[in-house]
Structures are given as C-alpha cells and as structure tokens.
Amino acid sequence: MAVVAAELAPPRSSRAADLRSFLLLAVLCLPALVPLAVVLSAVLTPEVEVWSHLLQYVLPEVIANTIVLVVGVSLGAAVLGTLLAWVTSACEFPGRRFFEWALLLPLAMPAYVLAFIAIGYLDYAGPLQSWLREVFGSSRWVPPIRSTGGVIAVLTLSLYPYVYLLARAAFLSQGRRAQEAARSLGMSAARAWWRVVLPMARPWIVAGAALVAMETLADFGAVSVFNYDTLTTTMYRAWFGMFSVNAALELAAVLLVFVLIVFAFERRARAGLRFATTRDLSQQAPRIRLRGARATLATCFAAVVFGLGFFFPVLQLVLWVVERAAMDLDARYFEFVMHSVVLATSAALIISAASLLVAYLERHHGTLMVKLLVRIATSGYAIPGTVLAIGIVVPIIGVNNTLQSWLSAWLGPSAPALLLQGTLITVLLAYFARFLAVGFNPVESGLNRITAAIDEAAVSLGAAGFQLVRRVHVPLLRTSLMTAAILVFVDVMKEMPITLIARPFGWDTLAVRVFEMTSEGEWERAALPALAIVLVGLIPAALLTPRGEHVA
Amino acid sequence: MYSSRNEQLIKPMFDRYTQETGQAIRFVTDDAGPLIERLAAEGKNSPADILLTVDAGQLWQAAERGLLQPIESEIIKTNIPAHLRDPQSRWFGLSVRARTIVYSTERVDPQDLSGYEDLADERWRGRLCLRTSKSVYNQSLVAMMIAAHGEERTEEIVRGWVANLATEPFANDTRLMEAIVAGQCDVGIVNSYYFGRLVRDKPDLPIKLFWATLAGEGVHVNVSGAGVTAAAPRAEAARKFLEWLTEAEAQAMFAGANLEYPANPNVAPDPLVAAWGTFQPSPLNVAQAGELQAAAVRLMDRAGFR
Question: How far is it, in rounded angstroms, from Cα B186 to Cα B179?
C-alpha cells in the first residue's frame, strides 16, 4: 500500500525545549499578537452608549448577515474549489492544461473590483437588464444582483482559488493508488471518490475554506459595493460615522469569536484525518480520460468559472483603460509597480519562512499553549484591514515616541526626528500580522503529509536537525511553500489600508493608486492600477503551475 | 500634510505653490479616520502640519479631540464665509459640496419638487432612490436636518424616505443616477459633482439637478477643508499655504478639479458647474454636521435606512 493512515506522533521533547520553543514562537508572532491585544484591551473600556444602540437596532441583523455570508461563501468556495481542483488534477479533458493554470487567476482580481463590475453589468441599469427590457418590455422578474445571493456569488468566485490551490496540492500528491485500492475492494468510482479521495484531501480543503471564511469576515470592499451589512461594515460605521474607534475595536473582538468558531470547525473537520503518503510522492497515476458529454461538461464548467471570475472582468478593465484611464499612464507607473513588487516579494519571503518555522515549532513542541498561540497569531487575517492597521500602527507610534523622548533627552534639541510609523519595516510588520495565516495554513497542511516515519528514516540515514529540514522536508514541502508565498504575494498586491497608513511619504503602490481613484468614486479610472495589480499577480501564478505537475 | 482628499485633486495645487514660493509639500493620503488616529497617537511628535479632509464632520472630530489649533488669519476670514468655518477658527472649508435633488426630466415636473423633506411624501412612493446611509454625505445631510427640525421630526422624514424607496440603497451616487436614467426610480439625492462627471461624459441624459431647500432655507452643503495640526512643527508655513489656498487662483483650481464650488464666494465655479444656475446655500454652520453626525447615524439605524 502506498498510503498509510499514520497517526503523526511527533517526537517528544523535553519540557525545557518546549518552553524555549514557546518563547521563540511568542517573539516570532509578536507583531501578530500586538494588534489583537489592542483589540481585546478595548473591551475593558466599553462604549456603553454605542453598544446599547447597536444591540437594539443593528447587531441582530448584522450578525445573521455575517453568518449567512461566511457560511455561504466558505461552502461555495469549498465546493467550487474542490471540484475544479479534482477535475484538473485527476482528469483529462479538452483545455485541461490551460484551465489548470487559468483557474488560479481570479485570485489576482480584487474582490471589490469584481463586485463593482458585476453590479455594473447585472443591476437594473446595466446592459443585460436594459437589453431584456428592450426585448421583453420588463426586467422586473430578474433576481436582483444587489442581494444576499449576489454578494455570496461574487465573493465565492473571487475566493475559491484559495481552496483550489490547496486542494490541488492535495490531489496531486496523494497519487491514485488509494482510489485504485478502494476500487479493487469493490467500491464504485463515485463511492471511492467520496470515501477515499475526498477524505484524504480534507485537511487541505478545510485549510483553504478556513482562509476563505477569514477573508470573508475581513472583507469590507466587496460588501460595501453591495451595501450588504456585516460586522465589518458596522465597525466602519461606528468608527467613521459615530467617531468611536473604540467601539470599532470592540466589534473586532466580537469578530474574533467568529474566528474561534472557524478554528473549532476546522479542527473538528480535520480531527482523526491525519492521513499521509509515505512513498511514491512523485509518481503520477494516469489521468482519467473524460469523453463525450462528460468532457464537454468539464470544459464548460471550467470555462464558465474562468470567464466569470477572470476573463470578462479583465476585459471590462481593459475597455475602461482604453476608454478613459490610459491618460493616467505615465512614468510614475513604473515606480508604483516596483513599490508593489518589492513589498509583495519581501512579505512573501518573510511570511513563508516564518510560517515554516512556526509550523515546525508546532509540530515538534505542540503543547496546548503552543497550539493556542499559533491560532491566536493567525487570527489577524479575519480582522478588517483598517482596524488591524490601527491596531499595529498605534503601538509602533508609541514605541517611536518613547525612543524619541530618550533620544531628545540624550542629544537635546539636535536630536533627529524619528518616524518609525512611516517606514517599510512598519508596513512589513503589519503585513506579517495580517497575512501570517495565509502563509501558515498551506505550510502546516503540507507538513501534515510528512509522517514521523519519514523523519525516522531520514534520521537513521544521518540527516538530522537542519539537514533533515533542508534535504528532506523542504523538497517535500516545495508546493506548499510556493503556495504560501504566492498567496501572500497576491494578497499584499491587493492590500490597501495598511499600505495607506504606514507607507513612507511618497511611497505609493498600485493599490494606493486604486484608493486615489476610488475614494471619489472614479471606478473607471481605477481600472489602470487594478489591471496592473492583476497582471503583476499573474507572474507568480504562472511560476507555480508547471511545477505543480510533478512535485508533491 | 495628511490628506483624505485624493492625490490628483491636490497635487496640482501643491506643485503650483512650490513653483511660486519654493516651499515643498510632502503628503500622505488615506481615509480621514486612520489619519486622525495616527495624528492622535503621534501627539507632539507628529510630522504633520495640516490635516485636509473631504467632509466637515471629520474636521470637527479632529478639532474636538484637540488635534487642530486655531488660526487667526484675516485673509481666511475675508475669503471664506462664516458658515463654512469652525466658530473657533480651527478649520475651514476650501470647497463646497452641494448635496441636492436629482430628477428624471421625463417623469418629473420640477414644479413638484421643493425640499429634501418633501421626498418623504407619499406621492414619491416607489419613486425614490437613495445612496446608502453609510455615506458620510447622507450622514451630514441628516445631521443638518436634525439641527433644523429636531430628532423626532427628522426621524419621521427619514422613515418616509425609506418607505418611498424604489430599490435597496446604492453604494454610490453615480449608480443612483444611472438607475434614474434607466427608469428604476424618478428622484434621488446626490452631490452635484457626481452629476457633473456624469453629464460631462453624456450631456444628453434625461436627468437634471434641482436646488433643494433644507427647512425652506437653502441647499445642504458640506465642505472639503483643512486645519493646522496642534503639534505642527511648521505652523507658520502651514498657515501661509492655507491662506494661499483661499485666494482666487488656488480656489478655482481646488474646486474645478472635482467640479465642486469654490468656498470663496468671489471665485466663479467651473463653466460646466456654473451652467446649473446659482443656489442659496443653507445658512447653518457646517460644524453642526460633525456635532450631530453620531446622532444622525443612530437615527438612520432606527429608521431602517441601510
């Protein structure tokens, strides 16, 4: 059997080593822990007046909305991502090679852009309904796009790649032998898929769905284009509308309760499913060749998702660029692109390296405290960017002010003015706080695949410690690490609030440019930077896929 | 400078000023909320001299938190009318944003239009489109209505609006106007410059502005404005620059870039804007928009205005 159900019993370590790891982990995760501490400390000074209002008039509906949205989008993305991942990694159908890569691309499309374009096309005043009215006289029977269903559909289309990417890594690395074995035991193909193939990929699917759930919780851009009220929009309303940043932070604390539920669900869905492949990681079984109607169906399915999630939105962006945004293109764009790429690349490298370290510490010193710490450190992904940005920038300003007063006491009036809050270091620290989960989830799932038996075999062959990591684990984890780096890269390319508040004077990126255009509602003019974000985001996506074919 | 007015609307003025005086201006753009938090956290170490926003409420809040200092300037007092200035001189408007009624010329007789309050009347049932109450422009409009009518009467009006809605509130003014053109509804409330942008591209749309009145007195206006920060390291240079921004040349550029109205009444608006006719602005001080904004948000929550 190529596959064993090996319970991963990590090599036990001493208490002192556990404690050391815990401390190391705590220091490593500090930037991610600080904003959460800020959020939680706000609870100590409750905004009673705002809360009594929110509880009476706002929260019941908003919490129900948030639950419906998160469940709908996570389920939608899990189903869509898993089906597409399986069809492109295990089957052969016309266009498979293209779609395998192309289905990743919606990742590069910011959700708020997709939302804006979807409403532009499908709302009452949009071209589709206008045409229907011309032909049939009325379009009142068309279900409204600005609805719960509409926002779930748009977020699903834009977020399913998280599941797709992770599930693909799972399907590609599990080989086809388990399925063959199941079939040799008399299961039908469908049953074997349901009972063997799918459960073996479950840790990856669930890890991807958890990312989707967190991203949905944090989303502000897309839901506000739909005017769909969630906890996130309520935070902004309390902060910008009622001038209570404290109430916004307290709402973020409520949101963390949702994150705990997501984590609990994730744990439950993964419990007892520590299946791992021990051998033949690189050996690919032949693909299932789809024929006739099934092949057509597979091609159409992939084409529809790709068309709606990427092709048509990009086409619209291109049209807008040609129509009116081209005039914005000047030499500065080279600078915007460079700034974006520098930030995204640095963040991708730092966060995937840190994720590897965190995942190892958890694997080898997985005490309850360590596991808890890791969960807490990765929950920042669910907090809306602007709130999280304040949660990290304000403490850094505090540090800056303290340093400044020391410096002034020491050097007197000639002391230089410090401005830590306006440096790239602060930007990167804040990205770390926000995107650690994006790097960590794929790496952790990948590490799950490597059994204790592999470690033991490697150790018995003389590869211990760092050697073990470098010569055995890193090659086995390559897809997972690449996945982590790509997800972080693309997420940073799209990130707005942290970049806005912490960037040095004049250090503008493509996402900042999108903000400049959309802050006064000039969406069409934002097409140029948005398109540039998509194009640059394609580069790492293109790097990933050809390798995915023959790497575990 | 910390600015929530976006780069393309401010940079040309900065460049001009640098050209004229040699004074360089560095700036960061972001939403006003985070900028104000940053300013507050930085305290006396803040590198910022000026806070520029696109809404009076945010300036009011910054002043309330002690983040702005009073500027005694005869030039500013002369150039900017009193109702567009903070009574304690900590900030003032640089351009005027009029929020008024827009209507379909095919289905509405402008004779039928009067004030914002009237849109709550039953005859507009199923004919009204509104932007979301999350928009600060609606928040300040309702705040001013509270200033004029009190909370009880305002809540009645807002409930009337909600009952008259033809469809869910829109995320922005442009979509709202497109819905009127498409026939989904007949009237709405928008900032005049969004209307300007739309008709600049498509002058033949069957849609027009009507200068509405608030409590029978005048059009609701908000401002994009600025103030000198409390800890400004270069307060004097900041004051000079802000004074320059209130003068004719800068005023025309500042408002013209976004089809707004100059705050300085002696400066003519862009010809496209001037073609919509003149209006009487509401005499209420724009500072009240900030003071009553939180109450307005709560009121809209109660009235079910989403």
Answer: 9
Q: Is A237 on the interface with B (CB under 8 A)?
A: yes
Residues B167 and A124: beta-carbon distance below 8 Å: yes
Q: How close, in Å, is residue B132 to chain A by CA atoms?
A: 7
Residue with tokens 């200035």: B85
Q: Do A57 and B301 touch (CB under 8 A)?
A: yes
The runs of H, that is alpha helices, within chain B are 7-21, 32-42, 56-64, 74-79, 136-149, 151-164, 173-182, 192-201, 235-245, 248-256, 271-274, 287-291, 293-302
- Examine residue A285 and state whether it is found in any structural domain, yes or no: no
Number of Cα atoms under 13 Å in the Cβ half of residue B23: 16
Residue A536: its H or E element: helix A527-548
Query: The CATH number of the domain where B144 resides is what?
Result: 3.40.190.10
Identify the bridge partners of residue B92 per DSSP, sorted by sequence position.
Answer: B85, B226
Rounded-to-integer distance, Cα A117 and Cα A113, Å: 6
d(CA B57, CA B51): 13
Q: How many domains does chain B have?
A: 2
Give φ, ψ of B285 to 5 degrees.
-70, 135
- Residue A1: DSSP 8-state: -
Identify the CA nearest to B51 among candidates B108, B9, B91. Answer: B91
Helix-helix angle A15-28:A368-378, to 10 degrees? 10
C-beta atoms of A386 and B32 within 8 A: no
Give the strand pairing for B2-3 and B50-53: parallel
| Ordered alpha helix ranges (H), B73-122 | 74-79
Which residue in A394, A400, A505 is closest to B26 by CB distance? A505
C-alpha triplet B79, B81, B86: angle, nearest 5° = 105
ipTM comes to: 0.94
Total count of domains within chain A: 1
Tell me: do B78 and B112 sit in the same domain. Answer: no
B243 and B191 within one domain: no
Euclidean distance between CA atoms A17 and A5, whole angstroms:
29
Helix locations, B1-127, DSSP H: 7-21, 32-42, 56-64, 74-79
Question: Using a CB-CB distance cutoff of 8 angstroms, which residues of chain B are in contact with residue A512?
Answer: 29
What CATH number does the domain containing A198 carry? 1.10.3720.10
Point out the residue among A241, A390, A497 whose CB comes nearest to the CB of B297.
A241
What's the pLDDT at A351?
A: 97
Residue B91 to residue B51: CA distance in whole angstroms: 9
Residue reference for tokens 């393309």: B8
Enter the pTM of the model: 0.93
Do the beta carbons of residue A108 and residue A493 sit within 8 Å? yes
Q: What is the DSSP string of A488-513?
A: HHHHHHH--HHHHHHSPTT---HHHH
Which residue in chain A is spatially nearest to B43 when comparing CA positions? A401
Using DSSP's 3-state secondary structure scheme, residue B254 falls into helix
DSSP one-letter string for A181-247: HHHHTT--HHHHIIIIIHHHHHHHHHHHHHHHHHHHHH--HHHHHTT---HHHHHHIIIIIT--HHH
Contact B281/B98 with Cβ under 8 angstroms?
yes
Q: Could you tell me which of A497, A528, A323, A327 has the C-alpha nearest to residue A427?
A: A497
> Within 13 A of A182's CA, how many CA atoms are on the CB side?
20
DSSP states along A22-45: HHHHHHHTHHHHHHHHHHHHHTTS
Q: What is the pairing mode between strands B50-53 and B220-229?
A: antiparallel
Distance (Å, whole) CA A269 – CA A284:
27
Instruction: Summarize pLDDT for A417-473 with one digit per residue, the tens.
Output: 889 999 999 999 999 999 999 999 999 888 877 777 777 788 888 777 777 777 788
Q: Is residue A343 assigned to a domain? A: yes
pLDDT tens-digit readout, A181-239? 887 888 888 888 888 888 888 888 999 999 999 999 999 999 999 999 999 999 999 99
Cα distance between residue A200 and residue A196, in whole Å:
6
B91 and B235 fall within a common domain = yes
